[in-house]
Amino acid sequence: MIELNDLSVGYHGQPLLEHVCLGFPQGCVTVLLGPNGCGKSTLLKTVLGLLPPLAGEVLYDGRPLSRLSGGEVARKAAYMAQNHTVPSIVAQRMVLHGRFPYLSFPRRYRREDYEAVSRALEAAGGTELAGRPMPELSGGQRQKIYLAMALAQETGTILMDEPTTWLDIRHQLEVMRTARSLADTGRAVGLVSHDLCLAMRTADRVAVLAEGSLRLAASPEEVFRSGVLDAAFGVKVHRVETAGGWQYFCE
User: Fold this and answer.
1) Rounded to an integer, what distance in angstroms lies between the CA atom of residue 26 and that of residue 22?
2) DSSP percent split of the chain into helix, strand, coil, nearest 5
3) Of all helices (H) and strands (E), which one includes residue 169?
4) CA 77 → CA 21, 25, 72, 154, 199, distances in Å?
5) What span, in angstroms and rounded, lies between the C-alpha atoms of 36 and 16?
6) Helix (H) and strand (E) counts for the chain?
7) Among 42, 144, 232, 239, which lies 20 to 30 A Cα-Cα from 6?
8) What span, in angstroms and rounded, lies between the C-alpha atoms of 200 and 74?
9) Cα–Cα distance between 240 and 35 in angstroms, integer?
10) Is the pTM of this model over 0.70?
């Protein structure tokens, strides 16, 4: 489990978020919600060691992140970034990059690596894209491949930054169902989302970030009833009960 203890994050000594205490439990989808620029992506990058914390600490299974090597971190937590470069390789080779933490140098892929890639492509809905060059794929198709690359790491924790970007509504729902199924197998799933309504339908826990701090981390029910979303986003959040559960909307 990844835990944040009194963590402050930002750039050049200037904090975006301060004194964040939060965990990413196994078997749980934790969604980070907050207005643009509040520090959601910066928090994820700090959790992964891509940015240094300004204060506090990140613990991986009780061990400080500062004492772990890059390889150890990559074998514990996979990261699907919001933005990627697009190399001139086929999609399967891109997904194979997710196996780097398990390879020695020079990198030689093994049978188990190709099997992991096949499982990841299937889970991400990208099997039919495996032989396609990355530059020829649409934005939504690339997102599937980047998701598969993260899944190919086969880590206990997966952190995703805006994973539904560029996707139409059907594929957005597929990605969130994938997040749900990963948590149901016992993995910890943390994701940043700008889609408040979709996030509230999927999350086990919602962490609302605004005005430089963690305002509340609780179940969607508790978060909705608290009114913290209305204050953070400057909207009125409503919901209606349907056969498929609560459906949220804003005005």
Assistant:
1) 13
2) 40, 30, 30
3) helix 169-184
4) 19, 13, 9, 9, 21
5) 12
6) 9, 12
7) 232
8) 28
9) 23
10) yes
